[in-house]
Design goal:
mainly alpha; 0% strand; 95 residues; 4 helices; PspC; single chain
Length: 95
């Protein structure tokens, strides 16, 4: 299988209602996004887990226009910030 045929799980803009998580999952699985929404609503009603699953999807799934997710962006920002700081907590001058 070539790299061009690989499906990627992404939050989509087409069919987006809140953040595009359900539409992205639906597109990835090849099913209607409303089926995913109904499943999440049922899971939410019976234990509240659907809201958490949606939030995790929002944080971990990259948007279709980006290569990285929200969490990956935050981690890279934090690493860049810590690379500019020495052990004493003082900022190193940019060279």
């Amino acid at each position: 299988m070539s790299e061009y045929n690989v499906k990627k799980l992404r939050r989509t803009h087409k069919g987006r209602i809140i953040a595009g998580v359900c539409s992205g999952i639906g597109e990835y699985l090849g099913i209607d996004a409303n089926m995913v929404r109904i499943a999440l609503a049922i899971v939410t009603l019976f234990g509240g887990l659907g809201v958490g699953v949606y939030a995790i999807g929002w944080l971990l799934m990259p948007d279709e226009e980006h290569d990285t997710s929200i969490v990956q962006d935050l981690i890279s920002k934090q690493q860049a910030k810590s690379n500019n700081t020495d052990w004493s907590g003082e900022h190193k001058p940019q060279v």
